[in-house]
Design brief:
There is one protein chain. The chain folds into two domains: 206 residues, 2-enoyl-CoA Hydratase, Chain A, domain 1, CATH 3.90.226.10; 44 residues, no CATH class. Helix content is 39%, strand content 18%. It is built from nine helices and ten strands. A hairpin with a 2-residue loop joins β2 and β3. The longest helix has 19 residues.
């Protein structure tokens, strides 16, 4: 097991734990609802890129420390930034978020608390999201004069539609756990007696049992027409079968056994 902690600050850090095929990324600043500083966004991007350098990683889990995900960016820091510096900060947020969105591995977000603003965007960058009774999601930017760029707006609209996205920004409303589940913002809503981190691990193990070719192909196919996402791997879109996994999967089905899929 390898654990990496990016540049620890007095007010937060990003940790990467790699073990058993999992790359587990933890946002660690619980005293301030895991709000990310500019430096933490930079470190998050660095960690995201590092994940793909380890061929043993098969599934990514993104979570926050304690019963939290992340409330987004630390807004207090913007009180001391110029307009140019503020715009640079938002560009870095998008770079970090899109880095996780483009990871050529299945990604699971553990949304065990508030996911607001840029934190909401980071949650939506994950392929699958697990929610709890503590989950809250929203984009309360109207009170701050923050204007959503195309990538930010598209991530929300792709899941809940144009009108609901506008309503979310127009009113500053926050979705409760059941609303998040009903709208598809979270894929699973567990009860308070279930350990969400254990649930995410078991979900990841189930994903690892599937054909890697099938898993990665659907991620690439769904991002193919999205101008904000480019998945960096070489799998032909014109092929419907994998040269190894397809015959192995069919043989396993016929022989009534568990398939032994290719593991790079």
């Amino acid at each position: 097991m390898r654990i990496t902690i990016e540049r620890t600050e007095k007010d937060g850090s990003i940790a990467l734990q790699e073990s058993g095929g999992f790359a587990i990324v933890t946002i660690n600043r619980p005293d301030l609802k895991n709000a990310l500083t500019n430096r933490m966004w930079v470190d998050l991007k660095t960690v995201g890129k590092r994940i793909t350098q380890n061929p043993k990683n098969k599934v990514v889990i993104l979570r926050g420390k304690d019963q939290l995900f992340t409330s987004g960016s630390d807004l207090k820091q913007f009180n001391h930034l110029s307009m140019e510096e503020a715009n640079d900060a938002f560009r870095m947020m998008e770079e970090a978020i899109s880095t996780f969105e483009r990871i050529p591995l299945p990604t699971i977000g553990v949304i065990n608390g508030p996911a607001m603003g840029a934190g909401f965007q980071l949650a939506l960058a994950c392929d699958i999201r697990v929610g709890t009774p503590n989950t809250r999601m929203g984009m309360p930017v109207g009170r701050l004069g923050i204007t959503l760029n195309q990538a930010f707006a598209k991530r929300i609209a792709d899941l809940i539609g144009k009108s609901r996205t506008m309503d979310l920004v127009y009113t500053g409303r926050l979705y409760n756990p059941q609303e998040c589940y009903d709208l598809g913002l979270i894929n699973y809503l567990i009860d308070e007696d279930t350990d969400v981190n254990h649930y995410a691990i078991e979900l990841g193990k189930k994903i690892m049992e599937q054909s890697p070719a099938s898993v990665l192909a659907v991620k690439r196919a769904l991002s193919f027409n999205n101008p904000t996402v480019t998945i960096p791997w070489e799998t032909g879109l014109d092929s419907s079968v994998d040269a190894y996994d397809f015959p192995e999967g069919v043989s396993a089905f016929v022989e009534k056994r568990k398939p032994n899929f290719k593991r790079n």
